[in-house]
């Protein structure tokens, strides 16, 4: 399935052109309080053509991906006079683009939306794939749709507005793209000395294009696309666990941790070489602080709720080597997760 | 766009075959308390192949098409172990099929669902068109998706389980199908002496096929499909008004009333002949009891929220003659609505 266009060069010009051809439509901006303050002014300065606009703000953070906030935004859209021809521009990180995509794809059975990702994570991950979603009682992205935005506008200048730890969050998805599909991308990433916009900006487009190529071959995750879930089975469960326990832990930190733990399981299953595993672990350890893991059994219920599961098995995609992930999911046991946790604690 | 298959003859056999080819999947039945008691036993008796099933019941009635009930059902699906491969079978009237389709199309970004409409209205109207939806603060179907069921299973025997007034509700959509697109269907319907399953069952398939042909030409309501909204601009607003005032009034009664009122406006606009209008009114008056209308201005805010509106105009599709609705929406004024209300009150 053809994915929405992702613009890097002249991205704002493309957006301006779109707005000019839809000048009779109401534009609704969705932001959080941070992107409202730091990103929306940059964006609006580039969009002189807008005639009829409204701004809807949601609180920043994962908690906004809730049914209650979605309901509030649907009501705001309704009250602000959004109709089927209105256009929603989601300006923010992955929470804003996932959430805004879901709200747009279900409001009056679907209105057009555009994503302007402002975090590294949303640029390299949420910008492609047409996944929209909100959480159900802290189970991540349980409710959502597959809906394409009209376009995705990527401008690395927004990264200058981000706190450093947000770089860590997006960087994990870039590492994953290298690990699952492109050893050269991996090699470029591991050479990076510090995670700053200057070092990262030149690699964003390559990372997005890896994901885009995968998704275009398998838009609804029947086969190949499953490789994008590398690190995410255990990563998502840990992310939810820490969220439930009010421990600050970004999606990317969870994915980086998940990549180590799942790669260890791949070694136990004799699927991945120990050499490759050690390289993966050393690169991730270079950037990411070690964390205290809960007991494996504490995340079992969360592992059982993974959307990728079929029936009662915990399913996971694992690396065959650096640069290649096997798309065929394998069952992993809680005992294997437990062993991987033990290894991580002791190394 | 190809619509989902709608089975009439051997409908249960088709459903059985589907279940046999998905025998490893969990089947989740969605019902309300009435269809749980009266329809599900009939359905299950015909489906001996089911191995793994669960039943989720929602309260009957329009109030169930809420975000709160949707959230409860998403949680139930999650707790009962539904995964991406599960299949939801919606067994009920339009509330159950609209609601169940929405819940299915958004649970884990979409699971397969099958509609088994049990009311005349859901057979002739909700069975085709891929519209799913719930209400937002009593604004009907503000939240929803366009998603095809896997199949629609129509068995007129379910009509025997229905109270008489439910016949009135579905019959209005059948009348509309004749009025907008097929003068012969209209002629057959106006000959009916009493609205019972025996008289109606033979006409259901023809009525469904009119709608299906329209929808297949214009699945997302860009052009021709708008004719299916005949009677619905004013009809929907009145339906919501009566619902808000705890007055029992079915969707079909609202549509029948909307057809009279909008046809009167078509006469005022010199689009429809007085002869045709009088024939329409006399046929509808034969079956539907006269009701007390509110003041036109009381439904103005509801008219303004119609999903079909663009900008601040109230838009409406109107008949050119019996058997032909003009798909180009026209603006109607509150003054015209007021005049139509006056006419209805006095005739």
Key structural traits:
homodimer, 347 residues, alpha/beta, Rossmann fold, Dehydroquinate synthase-like, alpha domain, four-stranded parallel β-sheet, two-stranded parallel sheet, 14 helices, 3-dehydroquinate synthase activity (chains A, B), DHQS_C (chains A, B)
- Rounded to the nearest angstrom, the radius of gyration of chain A is 20 Å
The spatial strand order of the largest sheet of chain A comes to: 3-2-4-5
CATH architecture of the largest domain in chain A: Up-down Bundle
Helical content of chain A stands at 40-55%
Coarse morphology of chain A: globular
**Number of separate structural domains of chain A:** 2
Low-pLDDT runs of 5+ residues of chain A are none
Can you say what the CATH homologous superfamily of the largest domain in chain A is?
Dehydroquinate synthase-like - alpha domain
Please name the two chains that share the biggest interface, counting residues whose Cβ lies under 8 Å from a Cβ on the partner chain. Answer: A-B, 35 and 35 residues
Strand percentage of chain A: 15-25%
In quaternary terms, these chains amount to homodimer
The helix count of chain A comes to 14
Rounded average pLDDT of chain A? 93
- What series of H and E elements makes up the topology of chain A? EHEHHEHEHEHEEEHHHHHHHEEEEH
The tally of strands of chain A reads 12
CATH fold call of the largest domain in chain A: Dehydroquinate synthase-like, alpha domain
Distance between the termini of chain A: 43 Å
Q: Which structural class fits the helix and strand makeup of chain A?
A: alpha/beta
Which CATH C-level class of the largest domain in chain A is it? Mainly Alpha
Pfam family, one (chains A, B): DHQS_C
Cofactor (chains A, B): Co(2+); NAD(+); Zn(2+)
GO molecular function (chains A, B): 3-dehydroquinate synthase activity; metal ion binding; nucleotide binding
EC number (chains A, B): 4.2.3.4
